[in-house]
Design brief:
Length: 258
């Protein structure tokens, strides 16, 4: 195998620090995401996972460190962050679809407004993206309120995919869903991982991490406490905090959730 070159790295995070007032929430985090890779972040609530993801497209401004996107430090002043954002997909826990637009229109709008693609081509691309997430045909013209949570989240993933981003960031995409609906979203994400869509995924879904991740990072108290190959980290964690976290997650699934 050839060695990984800089150009294979979509994202490089170096010594990232973020404070809210006096409180340091990200305390020097470094990792990288290579093209085609699925990286999964797990960790307890309050560990700084969402803050870290939001730093990547500068919804939050970090205080120190570097974020290299395709080799360019996106924290430098002369970077046009809107151009960078157009290349980074983001899928949130609470879908964030436009309520007054249909499923199809929700996927089209970014193509029209951000990419300036004409109506006909935008519709074609949007239909392709909705097919990739297996949205039922009769749901294309429905409004978000008329869709299940699983369908809404699949539309949100299609919206991200249609923009042909270099990476998609997921922040607990299935946490608001019943297990069955979470399953249909995770199936789609597994397919994307197989297709080598580059993804950085914050999730508590250990099954997904086991069979889709190339590497798992355990976030704890603002740092990467432990990281490794999925089976190794999830079945054989070295550190006490990782073991405790995984035990708690296993208990939750045994007792049927929260
Ligand atoms: N805008 C904010 N202002 C102040 N503190 C915040 C803000 N956002 C998050 N925090 C704090 O930062 C810490 C990490 O939060 P977060 O990144 O949401 O963790 P996670 O996603 O791992 O649950 C928490 O203690 C949270 O209360
Ligand atoms: Mg979070």
């Amino acid at each position: 195998m050839p060695q990984t070159s800089e150009s294979d790295r979509v994202l490089v995070i170096k010594d990232l620090v973020k404070k809210f007032g006096e409180k340091e929430v990200i305390k020097g985090v470094s990792f990288e995401v290579e093209r085609g890779e699925t990286k999964v972040i797990i960790g307890p609530s309050g560990a700084g996972k969402s803050t870290m993801l939001r730093c990547i497209n500068r919804l939050i401004e970090p205080d120190e460190g570097q974020i290299l996107f395709n080799g360019v430090n996106i924290l430098s002043k002369d970077v046009d962050i809107r151009k960078i954002r157009a290349k980074i997909g983001f899928v949130f826990q609470h879908f964030n679809l436009f309520k007054h637009l249909t499923a199809l229109e929700n996927v089209e709008i970014g193509l029209r407004v951000v990419k300036g693609i004409d109506e006909e081509e935008a519709e074609e691309k949007a239909r392709k993206a909705l097919a990739m997430v297996h949205l039922e045909k009769d749901a294309y013209d429905r409004y978000p309120a008329e869709l299940s949570g699983g369908q809404q989240q699949r539309v949100a993933i299609a919206r991200a995919l249609a923009m042909e981003p270099e990476i998609i960031l997921f922040d607990e995409p299935t946490s608001a869903l019943d297990p069955q609906l979470a399953g249909e979203v995770l199936d789609v994400m597994r397919e994307l991982a197989k297709k080598k869509v580059t993804m950085l995924v914050v999730t508590h879904e250990i099954g997904f991490a086991l069979n889709a991740a190339d590497e798992v990072l355990f976030f704890y108290d603002g740092v990467i406490w432990e990281r490794g190959e999925p089976k190794e980290l999830l079945y054989n964690p070295k550190r006490k905090e990782t073991q405790e976290f995984l035990r708690r997650i296993a208990d939750l699934s045994v007792y049927g959730g929260k």
